[in-house]
Amino acid sequence: MTSTAELRESSAPLEKIPLESYVPPAKPSLLGLSRTELAARLGDIGVPPRQQKMRVQQLWHWIYFRGARSFEEMTSVSKDTRAALAEHFTVDRPEVVAEQISNDGTRKWLLRLPSGDTLQKAHEVECVYIPETDRGTLCVSSQVGCTLNCAFCHTGTQRLVRNLTAGEIIGQVMVARDRLNDWADRETPHGNRLVTNIVMMGMGEPLYNFDAVRDALLIASDNEGIGISRRRITLSTSGVVPNILRAGEEIGVMLAISLHAVRDELRNELVPLNRKYPIAELLQACRDYPGASNARRITFEYVMLKGVNDSLDDARLLVKLLKGIPAKINLIPFNPWPGSAYECSDWEQIEKFSEYIFNAGYSSPVRTPRGRDILAACGQLKSETEKLSAREREALRAMAMTD
Ligand code: SAH
Ligand code: SF4
Q1: Is 152 in the pocket of ligand 1 (CB under 6 A)?
Q2: How far is it, in rounded angstroms, from Cα 107 to Cα 89?
Q3: Would you call 150 a catalytic residue per the annotation?
């Protein structure tokens, strides 16, 4: 059982590190590679093929089960191999440059990543840990910013976007385990964990970064490493229909759909991707989602916007639309952010809406906003990566035009 009070003492508190001091890594990190890719890297540094499988097993165990932060710690690996690995690679995670702890125990980490271009020194993303009585959920980002511009989402206002690599995605889980001292120790290898669940609900649209998200989630759910069951991993999408089926087939995690409106006209406005993949197509993809069943329901997320989508008519239509889909509905009170154009529905209205859905036979929990005081709640994440100078903005624009 996990609770705020039981949070293990973590590493020393972090003050935000200034961007000027950022030094991009000199060597590549092995995080995010599959076993086959790891074997190839070992081959590159001269490990003979007959040894590769065993060495990969060892590395996997040290990196993903024990959470080793250097090759030196990997005492079961031969000294020569450790030295060769350290010469060419690291097991570094994204750099944690700030940590904020909410008065409800929620923790938000700001991570700095190499930008890979000359216009900006670094990119930043956030990831959030939410402790509850029976679980600890890590909300993970898939992109820097998001291209989709949903009207109520802070992340969508961030202009600069890049996909995270698989290493940067799994790196968020590893950073959380580092900061929470949540790695397996020798005495209690399967002991209580603080991070028990993962939700791909941070910054970005995970199905627009499919391969990296898939590779990272396959590592997260691998039993010989991080070992978080696929039933405890939820991928949330605003509705990238062609990749929904792929997510079921290639990743096999739980699915959440950011529905938010029951009529195309309104959904076009709130979730502009709806113009490409309208509600009927989206729901068909849900009906076809492999593995969905009454025991493995699809979650429909519905942000409660006052006077916009919160009438009982909306609730009625919602129930009608979801007929035949093994579904649960998650009502999310709108979390405001500086400059947002919406208001959260009144509590009474949220309760009425929830009651209607419940009476129609659906589980309809209202998501308690967590970490609002540190802007860590749903839709509040946004890094400052976009703050470019006028000259840099101009250069980016010119680059985009030539794409
Ligand atoms: N891009 C993905 C996952 C990230 S958003 C998606 O859209 O599903 C995670 C959830 O938070 C989504 O359901 C999103 O619609 C919701 N959300 C975004 N902004 C919000 C806000 N200001 N208040 C409450 N929920 C919000
Ligand atoms: Fe992107 Fe999701 Fe925010 Fe929409 S709600 S802008 S898809 S992160």
Answers
A1: yes
A2: 30
A3: no
